[in-house]
Structures are given as structure tokens and as C-alpha cells.
Amino acid sequence: MAILASCLLWPLWLVLRGAFLTLDGSAWTFWHVAEVVRDPVTRAGLFNALAIACCVTVGTLLLATPLAMVAARLNFAGKGLLTGLLLLPLVLPPFVGAIGLRHLLGREGAFNAVLCKLGVLEDGIDFTGRGGFWAVVLLEIVSLYPIVYLNLSAALANLDPALEEAARNLGAGAWTRFRRITIPLVTPGAFAGAVIVFIWSFTELGTPLMFEYRNVTSVQIFDGLKDMQSSRRPFALVAVMLVVAIAIYVAGKFMVGGKTHAMQSKASVGRHEIKVGWLGTLLCWMGVGGVVCVAGLPHISTILASLSLPGEWYGTILPRSFTLQGWSTAMSHPLAVSSIRNSFILSLCATVVALVIGLVAARLIARGTIRGRGMIDALMMLPLAVPGLVMAFGFIAMSLEWPFGGVMPHMLDGVAGVFPQIWGDWLRNAPLRPVADIVGANPNPFPLLVVAYAIRRMPYVTRAAVAGLQQTSVSLEEAAKGLGAGLFRTMRKIVVPLVAANLLAGALLAFSFSMLEVSDSLLLAQRESDYPITKAIYTLYDRLGDGELIASAMGVWAMALLAITLLAASSMIGKKMGALFRA
Q1: Of 416, 440, 433, 449, whose CA–CA distance to 523 is shortest?
Q2: What residues contact 33, with CB distance under 8 A and at least 6 apart?
């Protein structure tokens, strides 16, 4: 736990410290933060980031709430298929979906082509123009609403129907029951999903970059990386973003926490779903199916872009000609091949690290008797509440500090003096720089990428393992202990086999989301030879010629990977899937 805390809390401390230190590190100052707030450019970027986050959060709540109600309360033909398709956006990272959405909403995109064909417009409208604010909002809403939907569905499944029945017997109508009973009881679930969506959209880097929307804080931080060693401005930007995100989270938790209502227990009677007739079925298919179709448009467009010859999908509804060249090139292009290899190795190592630490932490949380279990649980869930962009920037800051860079602190001079001079000099001059370096002349970001990936996905493994341990009896472990088995043997022979399905589900999620991690990949990998998949997609997309074709094809491969792993994880842990996306 000490190692985890150092890899999680130390980078955050370095970010905050860097924002309030003078450039030479000799004194504390508020000048850098005040300058960020005073500067109209950075102030506008922060305002735009907050506006995006608020619009996306409200949009996902408005979209996910009726969908969760329909899924929880109604029974109609094809319900299983439709509710499964509602999770489709999870298989495509928002910034990859931006490739497809630009083909849909650009001035020469498919949507404008349809309007021109119908005679509604004479010239196309660039819906992604003017910075692409609404394009970013739209894409993130249709990409992130499943997180709120999963949490609301889980909350509605745990709601005791007897409470609503009692309200009905007292004469309360449907709207009154929804307002006075349902909403207060599902508010914690709604908040759990909404806070993830807010932080995600507030700090999202990939989507604004793909839409060339640079007047937002996350992109300003990305553009300021080159000034880290000569300016405190990037540190101040990250610190302001972190403080704003935490302040809004705490304020929301306080306001929501004061209004939530607890049930005496889980559902005391079974809920009977309302079976609707043919008209209700038709309406459900139109409503839910419409959302599925809109949410699937970026996926379909990305697939079509990966099959279209360069320059053959402009001003038309569909591409003029098709090819499989992009798919084959995505498996043979040097940058694509090396990025896939890098992502696979990094994700596999990160998953192993997350499994080991997550299982130990889960056992302490579910079975431990030591004091501070709640603190361990909070620490393991913290990566969900801390922006990934902030964590990535923190790792860059960490790579500039001793023992990775810089000079050894004076307080440790006595320690170095104990060793022979050659060893002492080695200790004084960044001994771990060859092991992990980000912005140096010969960078090696792999160790820090593994740690960053593992920490970012640790909550999925921990929460899945806790759920498995809570479903298994502790008597089996006690029996093994009574027969003389040690802790390690009990874990290997009893605990791991019993929660294997949960561990595998968490590991699949950790692996697949690590393969498609955006913030850490874009910030920590600076050389092409070190690029993970997402950094390669971003780089290739900006190249002339067949760059967009290869990037789209790589996005399709990534989509297939996520689809397979999410289906496997969902089949293993069922309705507890939503609990993995709670901060």
C-alpha cells in the first residue's frame, strides 16, 4: 500500500508543489496560479472545459435516466438485445469516434450531403467548426452515457418495490412516486456515474485534439509540456484543473449526500416488470432503438472511414469506393505494428500489477480486521476521481525529480557519504534516470507507463475482487487456516479459485482500457518508437495521404478488442458491471 500511495499521491503532490514554487524552487508563491486565473486565454480554456463537462453531464443524465427506467420497469420483445446495444459506445474511445463524427458533421460530411440532397441546404454547414465545442459535447454524451446508465440500472434493481407500492396505496400518482420515492433512492447511483462523466469530460484530451478545439484547459496543458522545465505555468494549469475537479466533486457529494435516503434493506419483494403490448413495444423500440442508432453513428462512420480510399468520402452520403487496404496496412505499417506491440506489453504488465495489488487490497477491504480499511478502499478508488490528465502530468513531474532527474536533496547527502565515492556520485546524479525518463535526450517511458496504466485501472480489479469475496463464505478460508495453511497458500488454493471469474472480469477491463488509454499515452510517450496505440492513431491521423485511413482501421481493431473484452467481463459479473464505474 505504501508503494501504491507513493505512485499515486507523490505525483499529485509534485503537481501542486510545482504550481506554488518559484522557478528556482527557493520560495512559495501564488503568482503562477493567479496568473493563470488572470490570463484571459487560460481563463477561457477553463470556462470551456467546465462548460463541456456540465453539458455532457446533464446530457448523459437526461439520456440515461429514461433508458434505465425502461430497462428496469418494462418487459417487451427484444428487450435483451436493445439493452445490450445500449452499451455499444463503451467499445469506442471518444477520441477515436471523432474520426467518424468529422465525416458525419463536417462541411463535406454525410449529414450535409443528405440535407443538400433533400434540398434543405445549398451549401454545407461545418457543424464541427467554430472550435467544435458542440461536436465535442455531442460525441462525449453518446460515448459516456452508458456509465450513468449502468449505475442507474444497478440502483433501480436494488430499489424495494414495497416502498412504491406503499406510496401507491396512499394515493400517490406515477409522477409523485417517481419524484418522492424513486429519485431520492437512486440519487447515489446517479451521482456515482455522473461524477465519473464530469471528471472524464472536464479533463478529456483526445477528443478536443481530434476536433482541433484547442481553447480548452486540457489541450493548453498538452501544448505546455515543452515548457515544463522553464516555466511553472503548466503546473499551475494542472493544479487549477485538479482543485476545480475535486471541489466540484466534494460539493456535489455534500449536496447529494445530504439529500439521499437509505432503504432498510434490499428489495423485500420481487419486482414485476410491466409487460407492454404491441404499441408499447413499438414505442420502446423507437425510443431505445433511436438512441442506439445515434450512439452507433460514430462507430459506423469510423468503420466506413477505414474502408474508404483516401479522398473518396467528401460531399457524399457514403464513400465512393471501398478498400481493405487500411485494415491490412494497420497490421503492417511500422508505426502501427510497433504501437500495437508496445500497448500489448504495457497493458499486460499493468494488468499483472493491478491484479496483484488489487487482490491484496480487496482481501484487506472485504476480510481484513485492521484499522483504516476505509482509507485503503478510498485510496484504491481515488484514480476514478482524479483526472487521468493530472495523473499523467504528475508522472512527468516525477520524472524530473530525484532519483529520476534533478539533484539529490541535501538532507540525503549524509546517506550518500556512507558509500564509496563512485556509488555516492551515482546516488547524487539521478540514479534511476536510465530506468525511467520522459523528456530527456534518451527517454524510456515504459516503467512509468506501466505504473500509470496499472493505477488508472486498479479500481476495476479491486472492485471486481471485492464483489467476488463478498459473495463467498469466509468459512472456507478459516477451514484452510485451521488445517495449517499459511496466508499465501490460502490465497493460492482457496481465494483465487473462488473469485477467479471476478478477477478475470476485472483483468479484462484493465487490459482493454489500458490498451486504449489516452491521456497517459499522449503525454508520457514522446518518441515514435515508444508510442502506444492511441498516440499512434493521433499521429497517423494528422499525416497526409493514407494517415486517416490507417488511423480509422486501427480504431476499428481497437473497437473489436473492447467489444470482446466487455462482453466477456459482462457475462462474468453481470449486473455488478455498473459498480466498476463508481468513484
Answers
A1: 449
A2: 19, 20, 236, 239, 240
Q: Is 430 helix (H, G, I), strand (E, B) or coil?
A: coil
Say how far apart CA 38 and CA 28 lie, in whole Å: 19
Handedness of CA 487, 489, 494, 499 (dihedral sign): positive
3-state SS class at 415:
helix
Indicate the CATH number for domain 39-223+275-323.
1.10.3720.10
**Contact partners, residue 519, CB within 8 Å, separation at least 6:** 203, 205, 206, 387, 388, 389, 391, 392
In terms of Cα–Cα distance, which of 305, 291, 361 is closest to 86? 291
Position of cell 476485472?
Answer: 506
Average pLDDT over residues 353-359: 90
Written as nine digits, the cell of 241 is 484543473
Crossing angle for the helix pair 133-157 and 183-203, nearest 10 degrees? 150
Q: Compute the C-alpha angle 458/196/302, nearest 5°.
A: 90
Q: Which three cell numbers stand for residue 74?
A: 418494462
Q: pLDDT digits over 9-30, tens only?
A: 888 888 888 889 887 777 888 8
Pick the more confident residue, 328 or 581: 328
* Domain residue limits, the chain: 39-223+275-323
CA distances from 321 to 302, 308, 417, 444 (A): 15, 6, 71, 42
Ramachandran class of 311: left when φ > 0, alpha when ψ lies in -120 to 50, beta otherwise = left
Q: Cell triple for residue 582?
A: 463508481
Q: Which of 302, 313, 298, 303 has the alpha carbon at shortest distance from 109?
A: 313
Question: Is the distance from CB of 561 to CB of 330 less than 8 angstroms?
Answer: no
Round to whole Å and give the CA distance between 421 and 417: 7
As a whole number of angstroms, the distance between CA 481 and CA 185 comes to 41
pLDDT, one tens digit per residue, over 188-210 is 778 878 888 898 899 888 889 88
Which residues are CB-neighbours of 203 under 8 A, at least 6 positions away? 49, 217, 218, 241, 245, 387, 388, 389, 390, 519
Cα 566 to the chain's mean position, in Å? 14
* Residue 251 C-beta-side C-alpha neighbours within 13 Å: 6
Q: Residue 387's Cα: distance from chain center in Å?
A: 9
